Amino acid sequence: MSVQTASPASTRKPRGASFAELFTPKLVTVLREGYTLKNLRADALAGLTVAIVALPLSMAIAIASGASPAQGLYTAAVGGFLVSLLGGSRFQIGGPAGAFIVLVSATVAQHGMDGLILATFLSGLLLALVGFLRLGTFIKFIPFPVTVGFTAGIAVIIFASQIKDLLGLTLSVPEPGPLLEKIPVLWQALPTLSPWALGLSAGTAGIIVGLKRLRPHWPGMLIAVTLAAVITWKLGLDVTTIGSKFGGIPSTLPAPALPAFSMAKVIDVLPAALSFTLLGAIESLLSAVVADGMTGRRHRSNCELVAQGAANVGSALFGGFCVTGTIARTATNVRSGAHSPVSGMLHAVFILIFMAVAAPLAAYIPLAALAGVLAVVSWNMIEKPAIAVLVRSGWGEVAVLAATFFLTIFRDLTEAIIVGFALGSVLFIHRMSKATAVETHTPFVGEDQADSAQPRGDYDEALAANPELVVYRITGAFFFGAAASIASVLDRIQDTHKALVVDFAAVPFLDSTGANVMEGLAHKATKRGVKLFVSGANPDVRRSLLTHGVRPPAVHFAATIDDALTQYREPAAA
């Protein structure tokens, strides 16, 4: 019989990655691997495809957010370039996202455009700080029902914000932001409905949906918006266009400039910046995870957050607004055959080329067509299959989903995420506490069973011969959620018991509350003259117990229950 032993090299702990390795952009990794002309062709084609999708979407999101279409293009070009240049994902595409419409429009209404740009700048600094502190991993702990709920809620708000342009309504008063205040105002303006605007918006949405089914590889959004612009131009339709409302779009980027700020202004916009940071981190890492699932690659979360931070700072310098990873454009990038972050950088270059070449045509784009684009986007944002699965999963998931959804619509996005996360955490604690159990070798209320139903081990025979000794076996995480129920069981030590064995062999984790319960048990056992044994504790659990004062002579540690019984029978050997 031979025994194989592990070599020292195989048992050595893996070396932790250095700071430089963790924050090296994926672009550098790709270039080290070797970048060929074939790879460049693949990235150029993917970048062009994504740019075609991003062009109308960036302008539509900017207008819905209370910004100008030019700012949407600045955000896509500058932010998208920096995300791909510095990011920790090979395929991430950055730019303006529909999820930010609610927050951005509220910031513009409250603090003006200068406040929005300053909040974007501060958010970039905060995102970079979160990345450098390596907190990106914790962003992944957001429960799935929370992300589904706030995404669906944002979709409802986006659609509601586009009703005015979808129908071509003329409002006698400024359009309110809250949904319950907005509906009566829109209803009163219904007689001003424009048939041309309604036809353009419905036609745009119809073309996008139809091409998605019949010709899925065609750029449906760009085709639909271009046709709407040509029809508006040729027929001279009396509808609101980018040119009539914004004067068109510029053909070049503006000169970079720091946002105007003072300490008072910074304090005013800081809550908005924190909201941008939280949502930007969640959205970008979700997008990176989607890209990983499609390609089998793995992104580096903290490096990605640093890149998102740099992109937001860069966007603010050029007059843009919030940048984040965009799931739809990232998925399009992957499906188009992208090889590396170069595709994302080229997508930004193609947007700049469009601004230089097609700026005059953009002036004829009707706002109704862009509203039709966002109507389709808002419908696609609602994850119908995921909602169906969560509804079937149980009341807990439904409660978290519903709370997040309705708070997003009627209260505030940040509040919705915090409350949803809290409810999800309580649900997790509740389920973990029910999964943790404690049992003894002698049931409190015994039931008749056949002798063959539960075969006895050696230690059971020993226990039967020692009625003064009792064994409790704890299974599952011994944490604050389960501490109360376990403590109530352990408190049942009778004066007739002279020894107590608490088996931790099936306890993977012990928190400070659980350790405090054990410390109280040790004190109680010492006071009553009961000998306490702790068996099967792994090194981490044992370390936690020792830290909280559960140590000899009040407690005796043993590797197994059998070892504890041996120590009890043979005190001298112990």
Report on the architecture of this protein:
- 64% of the residues lie in helices and 5% in strands.
- With 574 residues, the protein is mainly alpha-helical.
- It folds into 2 domains: 19-384, no CATH class; 437-443 and 456-569, STAS domain (Transcription Regulator spoIIAA), CATH 3.30.750.24.
- The strands form 2 sheets. It has a 5-stranded mixed β-sheet, with helices on both faces. Strands 1-2 form a two-stranded antiparallel sheet.
- Strand 4 (469-475), helix 22 and strand 5 form a beta-alpha-beta unit.
- Helix 8 (144-167) packs antiparallel against helix 20.
- Residues 1-14, 442-447 and 456-465 have low confidence and may be disordered.
- One of its GO terms (cellular component) is membrane.
- It is found in: Membrane.
- Residues 459-568 form the STAS domain.
